[in-house]
Specification:
This protein is about 35% helix and about 20% strand. It has about 400 residues and is an alpha+beta fold. Strand 10 and strand 11 (about 285-295) form a beta hairpin.
Length: about 400
């Protein structure tokens, strides 16, 4: 199977020579190239029965690496089980117009932060209105920046419990079967919030302007640009509620730790071209194949490498960290949620223990004789692995 790592290993050096890459993208690129190779070190295991030797190399753990997300996702999902309530959950998607794509690419931290802020304030404020629910809600937001064709498509998925806690904290209010806030109301409130914060960023000189949007430095052009966005209908989509908590977890597993493209979608790498599978949502989710030059494929992939330390999954309202032990706990009591007796225990499982729980495969059992136990005999040091800007090897 062809992997992102193969593409980077074959063409990464040339790409770095021809393009001036930001430090955070360089680090991601080198991390993926080195993932599960001798460069990152590892350990040697030996069977205590037959003497079979197995060498295992360390993962890079970069959040954009397709090979490093499975265990991180499963640990995160185990933690999320503690937050689930025995109520329905809605799935809402907020998308910004494509006219904002150039500004977003040049100002990722600023624009993605505005996106989170506009959405969270929209949902929290409207839900408190007695016209809709009149209660305090909680929700989780997950940022995606990509479409199936790897082009820039910033949008946020929100998972929202169907109800909320009264302001005095004594009752749980269930919402209607359909989402308690009309989609048009959500869309226009979201549009107003986003453009308000965009204008604030503009007039405080917080935005940068690259080729293609430099004309926006002229105030009259920017005002005209904003005016057109106010007249446009922004896309907010609310899917039917999930049927159960298990469906919520299944959904979160698909979306929470998704990278721009997974390895299984890449079908060919030949003569400087990459072919991958994608689904065309405009044609009823039809599966198609797209072939790009390696240079263009890598350009599209790197558009979706998030700034360092930027948080792509956020919790709000009763699900926020400061409310998890108070308001969320109260909601569990009011909705008769099943309380976990061993909270956090699964999060502390080792990689081997977690794999055994998920797959039933015990990687500590010798694959050769099937009886002996693999014992670590030696640690392998990293081999001159040092990403740009780092004076010491990564721990």
């Amino acid at each position: 199977m062809i992997e992102i790592q193969d593409i980077f290993n074959q063409y990464g050096d040339e790409y770095r020579k021809n393009h001036k890459l930001p430090l955070h993208i360089l680090k991601t690129m080198i991390a993926i190239e080195s993932c599960r190779t001798a460069e990152l070190g590892g350990h040697v295991d030996e069977c205590n029965e037959c003497g079979h030797v197995r060498i295992s190399y360390n993962s890079c753990r970069d959040r954009h690496c397709p090979k490093c997300q499975t265990l991180a996702k499963e640990r995160w999902l185990e933690k999320r089980k503690e937050d689930l309530l025995p109520v329905g959950y809605f799935h809402i998607v907020f998308t910004i117009p494509q006219e904002l794509n150039y500004i977003t690419l040049t100002n990722q931290t600023e624009m993605y932060s505005i996106l989170f802020k506009a959405i969270s304030e929209t949902l929290l404020e409207l839900s408190r209105d007695k016209k809709y629910l009149g209660a305090e809600i909680g929700f989780m937001s997950i940022l995606h920046t990509f479409g199936q064709n790897l082009m820039n498509h910033p949008h946020i998925h929100c998972v929202v419990p169907s109800g909320g806690l009264t302001f005095d904290g004594t009752r749980w209010i269930n919402s209607k079967n359909d989402f308690f806030i009309p989609v048009k109301v959500l869309s226009r409130k979201f549009r107003g919030k986003f453009l308000f914060y965009l204008k604030k960023a503009y007039y405080s000189n917080a935005l940068k302007y690259s080729t293609g949007i430099e004309e926006l430095t002229e105030k009259h052009i920017f005002q005209s640009f904003i005016g057109k966005l106010y007249k446009k209908e922004w896309v907010v989509y609310c899917k039917p509620p999930f049927g159960s908590a298990e469906h919520v977890l299944e959904y979160l597993g698909r979306y929470s730790h998704r990278v721009a493209i997974s390895n299984h979608r890449i079908v060919n790498l030949e003569n400087g071209y990459v072919t991958f599978k994608w689904r065309d949502y405009k044609e009823h989710n039809k599966e198609k194949f797209m072939t790009l030059t390696v240079d263009e494929f890598m350009r599209r992939f790197f558009m979706h490498v998030l700034p360092r330390k930027f948080v792509k999954i956020r919790h709000y309202g009763i699900l926020s960290n400061r409310n998890r032990s108070t308001k969320l706990q109260k909601c569990k009591e009011l909705t008769d949620a099943v309380q976990s007796k061993s909270e956090n225990s699964d999060v502390k499982l080792s990689a081997a223990e977690l794999l055994l729980k998920l797959t039933g495969i015990d990687i500590n059992i010798c694959s050769c004789c099937g009886k002996g136990k693999m014992i670590t005999k030696e640690k392998l040091d990293r081999q001159n692995y040092s990403p740009p800007g780092e004076t010491n090897k990564i721990a």
